């Protein structure tokens, strides 16, 4: 599926105001419940996929393993529905492919970066029509809370992401220890247009349009001192 994905950031202190307005003008997405999202991002040992984002490349790729439940609230002997997800961006146009998997909660809860099941998943990237030029390793676990809405006026889908944090990293390649908590929220707009929908115009002063990457920002905070960030 190809569509436009536009991101707007806002400072964490404005989260409730942004959420109140979106809940006023939109309806909750009944198909997808709100909840915690966890993603293991893959990258080359030289962090090429992170550099694509940092350098502002027109074509960018992400490979991640994602699940939609809080492991602390379930029996670790159960299996969890997961997705090996490839996301490509061509400017503001996105293309996403997913491979549905079922993995033990124990695998996801312990030793993410050394478990063979997790480390071998990039070998299945060809099933998503993706052939990485370098070997990919699990690099970082990023988690956040997402609430989803549908805009009746434009038909666009909105997602509000808050509590964005990196809780684990692969210490073989990233020497700085987490956690990292980003002090921003993200409002994602997915649909047929790239401009801010009319329903969001009243809160436009609090939104900053930018090509925001949770993986990129978390690595930025981990690896680059504040005074050197661009």
CATH architecture: Alpha-Beta Barrel
Helicity range: 10-25%
Structurally, how many domains make up the residues? 1
Integer-rounded radius of gyration? 18 Å
Strand percent estimate:
35-45%
Query: Could you report the average pLDDT, rounded to the nearest whole number?
Result: 90
Low-pLDDT parts are none
Description:
The structure is a single chain. The protein is α+β, with helices and mostly antiparallel strands and 230 residues long. It has a single domain, classed as VTC, catalytic tunnel domain (mRNA Triphosphatase Cet1, Chain A), CATH 3.20.100. The chain is built from five helices and eleven strands, in the order βαββαβββααβββββα. A hairpin with a 6-residue loop joins strand 7 and strand 8 (157-169). The two termini are 33 Å apart. The relative contact order is 0.24. The model has no long low-confidence stretch (mean pLDDT 90).
